[in-house]
Design a protein that fits this description.
Blueprint lengths: L2 H22 L3 H17 L3 H28 L19 H9 L1 H4 L14 H14 L3 E7 L2 E8 L3
Helix pairs in contact: 1-2, 2-3, 3-6
Length: about 160
């Protein structure tokens, strides 16, 4: 047997061991990319600390994505709309008011927001977009409904 064929199974075993350890330590996002990262690291002769950094960064990014998705699901938003669909020109709310609300400073001060007006004026869109933005900033949000209709959203400070 040549030296090349002897090291190949050992390398595969090492990668399998790393994947098993990542499964045990519950690192699904790093586990998904570990084989590619290790192959690239070997080919480009990365420093071991760079390999660890890349794997931990992949895990942290994946966990953050999962956390945001979980918070959005738990919030119970009726439509999933954000400020991406908000049209300032169609709003009767002054731009300065919208800008202030988007800072979410009022949430951090534990102040309430009441939106009232005729149907179809964008109250739900505004509240939902504010809730989505609060989740993006690490806050917990919950839409409370009465008889299947949104009644209010509640945001709390980051963890």
């Amino acid at each position: 047997m040549s030296a090349k064929t002897m090291t190949r199974p050992l390398a595969d075993t090492a990668v399998e061991n790393v994947i098993a350890l990542m499964r045990t330590t519950r690192m699904p996002h790093a586990r998904a990319v570990v084989a590619d990262v290790l192959a690239t690291a070997k080919a480009q002769r990365w420093d071991p600390t760079e390999v660890v950094r890349v794997l931990l960064e992949a895990e942290a990014t994946g966990r953050n994505r999962s956390m945001l998705a979980t918070r959005r699901k738990r919030a119970g938003f009726p439509t999933g709309k954000t400020f991406d669909v908000w049209d300032e020109a169609l709003s009767t709310l002054p731009a300065a008011t919208t800008s202030f609300l988007r800072t979410l400073e009022w949430v951090r001060r534990r102040e309430n927001l009441i939106a009232c007006g005729p149907s179809g004026t964008g109250k739900t869109l505004l509240l939902e977009a504010l809730g989505q933005q609060a989740i993006d900033q690490g806050m917990h949000v919950r839409v409370l409904a009465q008889h299947g209709r949104p009644r209010r959203a509640r945001a709390t400070a980051p963890d």
